[in-house]
Amino acid sequence: GDSVTQMEGPVTLSEEAFLTINCTYTATGYPSLFWYVQYPGEGLQLLLKATKADDKGSNKGFEATYRKETTSFHLEKGSVQVSDSAVYFCALSDLGSGGSNYKLTFGKGTLLTVNP
Amino acid sequence: EAQVTQNPRYLITVTGKKLTVTCSQNMNHEYMSWYRQDPGLGLRQIYYSMNVEVTDKGDVPEGYKVSRKEKRNFPLILESPSPNQTSLYFCASSLYRRTEKLFFGSGTQLSVL
Fold first, then answer.
1. How far apart are CA B67 and CA B53, in angstroms?
2. Cβ–Cβ contact B102 with A under 8 A
3. Which tens digit of pLDDT belongs to each residue from B52-108?
4. Nearest-by-Cβ selection for B42 from A46, A89, A95
5. Contact residues, chain B, for A89 at CB < 8 Å
């Protein structure tokens, strides 16, 4: 079945540091890929997405490129801020086992803490 | 404002006492789903619904029921809650296409004593 593996946290960085959170996936079809962010006490919200190979999703200074050859979708940001402290989830959506329903699968999440 | 509304936000109950967590969306979305979030396990799908009267099991459906009698509502029912169902629960909705993002509710923190 489909699966998403993302780097274990927690990740602690100083403000203005470079961020990379690794994400790799396994899927049987042609998935769409997403990064969601969860701020403390809130639900998840979409950060960025890519729907086909070589697409780059970007938002709020974050970027991720859909790499089909390495089945990866790593999240990067050049200069993190304290306000970026949150849990980040990599996810994919693909057709379910029946072939007619789509299913969203999440990684386990990576906690990022940015210190001033 | 487009949103997914869950209630209650916090719930403490005892083993075996039936409870319902409500979920409502105002975006006319076909697809709705329930997830539970546990430390170290991430989000796991409980049930999902592709449209009215169409529901199916996710990865961890045991001990839960759902119904989809109206497009906007998707309640989660725990007929006989047990302590291992203590968790943070999220309802989500989207248009029924794999390229579409999910809109999440704010979550329900459930404790079963």
1. 7
2. yes
3. 998 989 889 999 999 999 999 999 999 999 999 999 999 999 886 666 788 999 999
4. A89
5. 42-43
Place of tokens 């994400």: A23
CA distance B103 to chain A (A): 7
Residue type, A43: G
**A5-43: per-residue pLDDT in tens?**
998 889 999 999 999 999 999 988 788 999 999 998 888
Nearest CB to B105 within list A36, A43, A102:
A43
Which amino acid would we find at residue B30?
Answer: E
Residues of A in contact with B40 (CB under 8 A): 108
Strand A110-115 vs strand A11-14: parallel, antiparallel, or unpaired? parallel
Q: Look up residue A63 and give its two tokens.
A: 């970027």
d(CA A26, CA A39): 27
Classified as helix, coil or strand, A80 is coil
